[in-house]
Amino acid sequence: MRILIPQEDLERRIAELAAEIDRDYAASDRLVCIGVLKGSVFFMVDLLKRLKVPLAIDFFQTSSYGSSTSPGEVRIRKDLDLSIRGKDVLLIEDIVDTGYTLRTILDLLRFRGARSVRLCALLDKAAAREVEVKIDYRGFEIEKLFVVGYGLDFDEHYRNLPYIAVLDEDAPDVPSPS
């Protein structure tokens, strides 16, 4: 494993993103921040702790139906608890790669009557993009690499690393937790 984005760079960029979001939502009294589970949790918590605008928090979780489905076809595993009709929505995601799942989620949020929908993503893997997804607040653009840490995982391992690392393709299998 090699560190791609150190903890200090994450903290600095998240503070900058929070300032941008505070500026853009200064007049909003209806901001709903929605985290995409599970990967966004670390990023979302650190980002929201820095925001000054009034906000509500909710979570969304999806999964694909399996390898036999077409891209973008997702199953909702955990839906929103809050109504977003007439509210400003900030969707918070750890990484954007192909864009299929995120485009589906963004379209659904708009369909449900949100006043506005914006996307905040910690990582943008633009080289992997297959469908267009507008990222309103981007942390870092990265190459087409398999990364872990700061919420991102490999088979539920490495989420708790305080930095983003590239997982070597030649790395041995992850040991079972004891």
Can you give a write-up of this model?
- The protein has 178 residues and is α/β, with parallel strands linked by helices.
- The chain has one domain (2-64, 72-144): Rossmann fold (3-Layer(aba) Sandwich), CATH 3.40.50.2020.
- The chain has 3 helices and 9 strands; from the N terminus they run βαβαβββαββββ.
- It has helices at residues 7-24, 41-50, 100-111; strands at 2-5, 31-36, 55-64, 74-78, 88-96, 116-124, 137-141, 147-148, 164-166.
- The protein has a 6-stranded mixed β-sheet, with helices on both faces. Strands 1-9-8 form a 3-stranded antiparallel β-sheet.
- Helix 3 links the parallel strand 5 and strand 6 (116-124).
- Helix 1 packs across helix 2.
- The longest helix is centred in the first third of the chain and has 18 residues, at 7-24.
- The radius of gyration is 16 Å and the shape is globular.
- Residues 174-178 have low confidence and may be disordered.
